[in-house]
Structures are given as C-alpha cells and as structure tokens.
Amino acid sequence: MLVADPDLIARWAGAWAISRGAATPVARDGGLYIHVDQPDQVGRYLFARLDADAIRPLAASIDRPLLYLKVCAPADDVRPLLPPGWEIATPGYMMTAPLSAMLDRPPAIPAEFEIRITSDNSITFAHILDASGEEAARGRIVAVDGLIVFDRICTADHYQRRGLGSAVMRALAADARQSGIKDAMLCATPAGRELYTSLGWALHSNYTTASLAGPV
User: Fold this and answer.
1) Ranges in the chain, pLDDT < 70
2) Whether residues 148 and 169 fall in one domain
3) Residues 38 and 75 in one domain
C-alpha cells in the first residue's frame, strides 16, 4: 500500500488553503484541520496516514454534514472507521511530478484559442479563451515551501480532448520555472489522473473523502 509523506501532504494542504481562500491548516484531533467556511464545505480534516485511533473517534464526534474527513488511504481501509450514515465520495489521488516533466515541450493550443497568465499575490492563474472570449480551460498554481501545487485544472465540457488541459499544465509549469522549485503536486480525480499520468505525474497516495450524509 502506498504511504503518503506527511510533510509533503502538509505543504500541499497549505497551498490548497491559499488557493481556495481558506484558513491556514492547524494541527487538530490527530490530523490537520482547514476551516473553509463556504456554503458547500464548513471545513476538512486531513490525515496523511490511516490513523484509526484518531479517525474513528473524530468521525463519531461529527454530527453535521459538510465537515469532511480526507484520508490518504484507499476507501476500503477508511470505511470501517466510519459510523453509520457516512458517505464516501468518488476517489481522489495525490500525485507528484518533477516540474521538468511538463517542460519537455511548450504549451500548444489550436490557433483559435488564446492563453493568458495572470498572478494575484501568491496564486498564478492560466486561462485559455476561445475566439469569442469565453473561457475554455483554466488552472492555477501556488508555491509553498519548495513545492508547486497545481489546483482547479478544468476544461469546459465542449472543449474536452483538444489538448487544452495539457496546455494549461505546461503553461503554468513554464511560468513556475523561474521560481527555481523542482517539485510539483496535485490532487486528481479519476478522469484527471489519466491526463496527469500522460504528462509524467506519478501516484503518491490514494485520497479518500468521507462525510456525514446530509438530509434528503
């Protein structure tokens, strides 16, 4: 079984919090807690390891939906630690890569698209626009403690499979090259994992999300 590096996961969590405008992660209840304070998420507890002695009582103490447990372990290992009424979401994957893996060639997009790179404090954004100026794909990166974290990589449904996601990744990597940081990390969906693997990313650990089911 893949075992996550707690230091790496902590750095990823710090970058994720910056990217999403959430509170700085703090140590709590055996893991890291990030207060998100959004309509779809109150907060999240993040565990780099499958710590049953911490996760089981924490899950039992949670009495509201939208407060998530995130564990770097397979769903089948997390499920026995959860009380009745909890749900497990679609699996995620922590992935890592050397930044150089995405710099083997420049970002290439069809002529009818335009790519724009902007920055806002510690976040760098990439947007690909179509001929009408509508967003076709996007993504962002945050640099934290020697790690480049990619986040919110997304391509509009009607522009899928045209290489726009790869172009966003390569453009962001090219921009990050000037930082001198060599290592990159992201959390992938099952669909995203295929793209990232093709770009030289490797699986670091499984990533399971669980929460108390909300009212029907």
Assistant:
1) 215-216
2) yes
3) yes
Q: How far apart are CA 105 and CA 72, in angstroms?
A: 32
Q: 79 in a domain, yes or no?
A: yes
Model-level pTM greater than 0.85? yes
Q: 117 vs 125, 175, 216, CA distance in Å?
A: 6, 8, 42
pLDDT digits (tens, 9 = 90+) for 66-100: 999 999 999 999 999 999 999 999 999 999 999 99
Question: Is the same domain home to 67 and 108?
Answer: no
Residues 206 and 111: beta-carbon distance below 8 Å: no
Print the domain residue range for 140: 96-204
